[in-house]
Amino acid sequence: MIQLEHISAGYGGPLVVQDVSLDLNPGEVLALLGPNGCGKSTLLRVIAGLQPPAGGQVLVDGEPAARLTRRQLAQKVTYLPQSRNVPNITAYRMVLHGRFPYLSYPRRYRPEDHAAARRALELADAWELAQLPVQTLSGGQRQKVYLAMALAQDTRTILMDEPTTYLDIQHQLDLMRFSRTLAGEGRAVVLVLHDLSLALGGADRAALLQEGRLAGIGSPGELFEDGVLDRVFGVSVRRIMAPEGWQYYCVSKG
């Protein structure tokens, strides 16, 4: 389990994240929401150990993350960033990179690493891409490969920053269903999303950031009933009951 205690963070100027306390619970999909520039990506980087906090601390299974090595933290937390380099290697070799935290130098892949890479590609619906160069893939195909690389890392916490980028609507829905499958395995899944309808329809809880501060946290229904979504985004969030449960959508207040 990961706990954020009064986290603040920035880049040398004004703080981008201010006094955020939050638990990432196993078995739960948590959507991290908020307007552009509110600190969502920065907060993920702090959790992943890529951005030092300016205040507060991250606890990983009760231990301060600052005491863990990068390798130890990478065995507990997977981070899928919003933008990534596109190396000139095959998709399969790219997915094997997810096994780096478990390998000593020089890296020699073991049978269990190859098995994990294949399973991850299959789960991400990308096995047919395995032998293709990543540079030749479409944006949506690349996103599947990077998702598979994150899965191959096989951690209990998975952080994904805008994972639906380049994905069509069918694959966006597939990703949400898959996130729920991962949560069902006892993992904590955190998704930064801009699509409110997708996030509120698929997450167990949502944390709402505004100007770097936590403006609200709770189930989608709780945030809807509180009205905080309307206040933060400046829209009117509405919902209708469907066979699958509440479906949320937004309309302009104007």
Explain this structure to me?
The chain is α/β, with parallel strands linked by helices and 254 residues long. It folds into two domains: 1-76 and 156-217, P-loop containing nucleotide triphosphate hydrolases (Rossmann fold); 85-154, no CATH class. Helices cover 32% and strands 30% of the residues. The model has no long low-confidence stretch (mean pLDDT 92).
List strands and helices in order, with pairings.
Layout: E1 2-10, E2 15-24, E3 28-33, H1 40-47, E4 55-60, E5 63-64, H2 70-74, E6 77-80, H3 91-96, H4 111-123, H5 139-152, E7 157-161, H6 169-184, E8 188-192, H7 196-202, E9 205-210, E10 213-218, H8 220-226, H9 228-233, E11 235-242, E12 245-252
Parallel strand pairs: 3-8, 3-9, 6-7, 7-8
Antiparallel strand pairs: 1-2, 1-4, 4-5, 9-10, 11-12
CATH topology of the largest domain: Rossmann fold
**CA-based shape:** globular
Show unreliable segments: none
Number of domains: 2
Percent range of helical residues = 25-40%
- CATH-wise, what's the superfamily of the largest domain? P-loop containing nucleotide triphosphate hydrolases
Beta fraction of the residues? 25-35%
The average pLDDT score comes to 92
**Tell me, what is the CATH class of the largest domain?**
Alpha Beta
- Widest sheet: strand ordering: 6-7-8-3-9-10
- Strands, total number: 12
